[in-house]
User: Fold this.
Amino acid sequence: MVYKSNSNMDEKEVFERICKGDEKALEFLYKKYYRMMTKLVISNSGTEEEARDVYQDALIVFWQKATSGNLVLTSKMSTFIYSICQNLWRKELDRKKRLSNEEKDSSVEMDTETLEREKIIAGCIEQLGDTCKKVLTYYYFEEMSMQDIADKLGFANTDTAKTKKYKCKKKLDELVKSQYSEKDFLD
Amino acid sequence: MASEKEFELLDDYITNRLHGEEKTSFERRLEADSDLKSEYKLQQGLVEGLKKARVAELKSTLNSVAVPSVGGQTSLLAKLATSLVVAGMVGTGIYFFFNSEDKEKVAQQQILKKEEDKTKEQEPEPIREEVKSQPDASTIAPAREETSTVKKKEQIFSQKKTSEAIVPNPETTEPKERKLEVFDPTQDAETGHVSKETTAKANSATVNNTTIAVEVDNSNKKFNFHYQFKDDKLLLYGSFEKNLYEIMEFFSDDNKRTVFLFYKDNYYLLNEDNQKIKPLVPITDQALIKKLKESRG
Assistant:
């Protein structure tokens, strides 16, 4: 009798695919550890919704670290993700506790102008074309290398990726600035 | 901020790509130049916005992934179907035995499941008793088959319990070469047609806990006794929830999966080759039926 997993995609392969920004591999991982990770929160006085939220956030932290090439894995992926879940949930519990003690969370209140600016930026990002959006998010969030961005988006080489990134950022910059000046946000 | 070079320099600073002298000299300029400083704040806002947008996008991607039901996301019907599957497969006696609060034993069995070399003698007592209390199976099946039955029951059970009692401890160090248990739907396409060889396959194959999400659709008039593999899920068309059904998964040594359905005394092969809706046709091969019966115990 041999205990078999239901896939022959091994830990190393999944991790490598994630490092390359393969979202399908992320989805596999998400599904694979869903029960295990949500259980952690649910059994520590969390709701299922909170559990899902924490797990997703933890997985995204892991994803970001992996895609940026800043992660040298010394344990199993599940161990790493589990510890992120633990930390995030501990923080959330602390925050809840503070909230109930102080009645009101005074520290995180943002002024309306900041919120307004954020809204404008989000709107402008939406206006970008699909490729622009991808280039920029891969560069700024995933922190992928120009080579990986070029590979993923089918650009001829890293120079193309660099130029694209510059142009797209400039475009976003212009969009936001034109909206800011309408609102008199530019000083 | 006119020049491309300046724009890129600021960008590199924001994304932490400046180091050493380059970084300190840029910081000095930033302190002295208020225009540069306000530009810096604006660019930082853009980068933050992009990051937020990406997180939201990833979250919505994850939200659309069908996850194993812990409750919540899947429909009540799907949950009902799942519990029926478990109840049907495990048999009432074992089901109630394990449904007790004896979590320690449960956890132990989870470990047992993973320990490949466990001999029959080391199996937990209550399970063996349960098997023995059944109509004397050992006279029909050779001893080896009995072991496999016992194993299978444990595993099916552990599938059910995972949502309640077992959090596999990720701290447990496992051999590094251990395969990651990730379900890869792309492997499905490789699953071969079942021929008479299946008999042999079912014999040598390892029985694993069912990981297939099952949904029942009894509203379709055209398809009233059909099945379909779609997006990692098994859809059964027909009034299945009224009766117990079982999903049986077999993994051969080369990791190929073969799936069978047991329903109302008949066995059905579930072909995963494509996502088409296919009619359920009972298996007639007596030798195969016998093997499947033995596997169910």
Notes: Confidence is low (pLDDT under 50) at residues 71-76, 90-209 of chain B.
